Amino acid sequence: MRKIRRSTLAVMVSACLLSMSVMEPALAQSATGAIAGRAASGTEVTISNPATGFSRTVTAGADGTYRLSQLPVGDYQLEASGRKFDVSVSLGGTTTVNLAGGTAGALDSVQVIGTRIVNRVDVRSTESATNITRDELARLPVDQSMGAVALLAPGVIGGNSSFGGISFGGSSVAENSVFINGLNVTDFYRRQSFSTAPFAFFKEFQVKTGGYSVEFGRSTGGVINAVTRSGSNEFHGGVELTIEPEQWKSSADDHYYADGTPNTLSSQDSSRFLKTNVWGSGPIIRDRLFIFAMYEDRDSTSRYTTGSFGNSLNKGSSDNGFWGTKLDWKLTDNHLLEFLAFSDEGDITTKTYGYDFASKEVKTMTGQRTVESGGKNASLTYTGYFGDNFVAKAMYGVNRSQSLSRSPADAACDLVGINTATYGTQYNNMGRPTLGCHPGGSVVDHEDERKVARLDFEWTLGDHLLRFGMDREVMTTDRTSRYPGPTGMLYTIYGTTPGATLDNGATVPAGVNAFVMGRRRIDGGVFETTANAWYIEDNWSITPNLLLNLGVRVDSFNNKTAAGTSFIKIDNLVSPRLGFSWDIKGDGASKLFGNLGRYYLPVTNNINYTFAGGLTDERTFYALNGFSNETNPITGAAYMMPILGNQIGPVDDQFNVSVGDLRKSVDRDLEAVYQDEAILGYQSMINQAWSWGVNATYRRMKNALDDVRINHTPCGPTSTLWPIANPGRPLTIWGTTSMGCAQDGWITIDTSQDGYRKGGSGQVIGYYEPKRTYKSVEFQIDRAWDGKWAFNASYLWSKSDGNHEGPVNSDTNYGDTGMVQHWDHPANNERYGPLFNDRRHQIKLRGSYAITDHWSIGGSLRAASGGPITAFGVTWPNDTTAAASFVSTGSGGGSGWLCVANCAGPYTGRVYEYTPRGAFGRMPWTYDVGANISWSTKIGNSDFKARFSVFNLLNSQEVINVSARYEGQPGVKRSTFGTGTRWQSPRYAQMVLSWNF
């Protein structure tokens, strides 16, 4: 066995050294915890970690208080006056150990589970957070992703499934931050994803849902804070196998429109997943230098049909490997160094075939595409303990990600598709032939790199714990994207009727019953954004039982052009935070706590990329003159191409973004998006195992930052401009004589009164004040694991309403962060009411139970009421300019006004009906039940465990997204309104086999 251990370790050391040679060193803020309490004045309190030899000693002050801070997460022994106690230190928390009546040899009132002191009520915390350890996750049916862990916390829900992500406390999916060992791994291009690692790589997770410290910023949603595993003085290793065969997955339901036309055919979709994880850990130098290293091989395949008629079949395959390593070096007893490196690089190759859904006949391959993602990441952390009262940290870090998309057909083949809602029946009658020879997707080259540097200090001065520091992030995006093919256009075929109006204002000619929209979209460049911040915080123990947290954070953001000049620069964003925690009885068993704070959101790099690099986004409309038979130049397969007839109207170039004069592209006095938050809560132990709590949260976002349609200024009417602005507030841009100004110079537009001129009537109006509020009350009860069973239950009532969701628009599935349709037209944001992420009721249960020494079971339930169904029309009163696309349901935001009479005539005679947000009811409740059963045994000095988990046990497939576009043309209801676009994933099962020694 020792030979096996040493061989495994040798492999892992080699992997670590290799990673160090190919990575730039990175330094990151480490994720730690603390121990604090009271003892007799002058008592020496020592904590030690037997697994690593790490120890620290402090002396209780004249007031009897002591604190041991910045401790690596783990299990310790606390010793005072010859007595020893086992103590657990959790991520981001402070474990309270009060020694009885000032006598160091005995415990006062503590929280003991089994024989270990744990942190049931953290009376030194003023935030709302949920901690979940690796051991707890091993007992529960939780999918192996950081997002799935976050969903265990109250108030966290899945976002719009069209572009993924999670929503914290009513925020959009683009407002969160994710840290691994203190390294910020959040996607900074759109803020909707993050770098990640296997479950087996992590030791503990902390999900912060509100009230977090000034140390954390650049988020108006929530924070996922994770810490990885580390080595120790003992050699350990293991192998873990995760199996998800396709036979253990239920079929997804097929869905049809009311007329029998297919909506989504997915019953023949399938996938399988297999991953093998090998890890090893141990000392390189006993008590000094430790290593943990892991390699994981991932093999997956998928099979899914596309096109509403299932006429194409995609077969995806991926065989990727994750590697990661953690080095811990105790330079001396008071100076520590940590190195983390991991790679989540991966790719998937998808081959597309013609397919007959009814007969399940796979036809000739029509294309192939490879998508690469992920990147290399690293962090290096120095921690220095200077005496009893001062701790310093230094950090520098690198986080990389990429998104590359390639196909052999990129040069030769254009993209072709159909709009099933308007042309589905005709296409079905044609026999559903293959259209175009490209398998789908744009040609994308995208690489992001974040470099991070930070300093953090902690200084204890009597009743005051001062924490202060600074950080700097340099975020660089190198991206180009375009549609493939010789014309570089995406061709979409629509059914229509003569006399209908197109987005370019043209009328469909007589005899034309179908048209083709060709969209050309090209962009590219290299762009950099810097984000700097400093913070200071005083945790003041006003009395032994009352803690006041006083903090301030100051952020600055500088988004730059490709030439390196400032495009958007916002300085001195002051975020005050005020919190308190009252240990009501002075025994650490209950607390009343509260928090007031402001949180700022940075400007994403996709705005630099689009506005400081230029964007070509044009639509050209053609009559459809039938189809031609063609041969795929890559595969030799037959396909059909639409024959373009006469062009209908001019090229619609209203969405182009020019970089000729950036002073017209951004508000000179632009303000960053911020959110104010208030939390009040109570938490208490019932006994040593049980605790409960209740808290109320209020969040308010009163401003927005987005591109805004401006076609009128104090100088008069102008061609459409799209500056980045704070809608509803004064906007200052460069005015020119070509815009009707008497001379060139700065002009200010009060966008609450001016900025938009209605078509036809010429009436000048402004935009409505942006507003988003979130209110919630949360109840939670928890029983800690005592070797036999554990349980947690929460109920949350919440209300999220306003007139904009945030920097994305889930209503219309538009996820281009900071450039959505909320402010493309005043009608888009006229209505205040329930927002997309409004789920009034949420219930979450999880529990585990050890039946015997070998067998255990676990279960979970997530239930939530459905989101609102809101109707979006295409026009509103007294205006000829459309509030949304007449052609596409995803383009343009839409109006709350629905035309009910005289809709085909002049705009002056149209009769409208106003519909509030949520006027068409709500989607159904969703229920997700999980269950698992585990068996474990010892084999010599090793442990073997098998865990079988079932997710969505009841196979619930309720709708979770619906089509919100009510109209196509004014007064013409779309048959797709209110029909599903996404549903819950069907039931699937997973087996995890692990052998650890």
TrEMBL record:
A GO MF annotation of the entry reads: carbohydrate binding
| Classification via InterPro entries | Beta-barrel_TonB_sf (IPR036942), Carb-bd-like_fold (IPR013784), Oar-like_b-barrel (IPR057601), Plug_dom (IPR012910), Plug_dom_sf (IPR037066), TonB-dep_rcpt-like (IPR039426)
Q: How does it sit in the membrane?
A: Multi-pass membrane protein
Span of domain TonB-dependent transporter Oar-like beta-barrel? 315-559, 572-990
Keyword vocabulary terms for this entry: Cell outer membrane, Membrane, Receptor, Signal, Transmembrane, Transmembrane beta strand, Transport
Using the record for this protein, list the coiled-coil segments as residue ranges, or answer none: none
- The leader peptide range reads 1-28
Database matches in Pfam families: CarboxypepD_reg (PF13620), OMP_b-brl_4 (PF25183), Plug (PF07715)
Q: Where is the TonB-dependent receptor plug domain?
A: 125-223
Q: Which PROSITE patterns match?
A: TONB_DEPENDENT_REC_3 (PS52016)
Q: Which domain of life is it from?
A: Bacteria
The yes or no answer to whether the keyword Methyltransferase is present is: no
Task: Give the CC-aspect GO terms.
Answer: cell outer membrane
Q: Where in the cell is it found?
A: Cell outer membrane
Any one GO biological process? siderophore transmembrane transport
Which family is this sequence assigned to? Belongs to the TonB-dependent receptor family.
| Entry protein name | TonB-dependent Receptor Plug Domain
**Protein's organism:** Solilutibacter tolerans
Which taxonomic lineage does the organism of this UniProt entry have?
Bacteria, Pseudomonadati, Pseudomonadota, Gammaproteobacteria, Lysobacterales
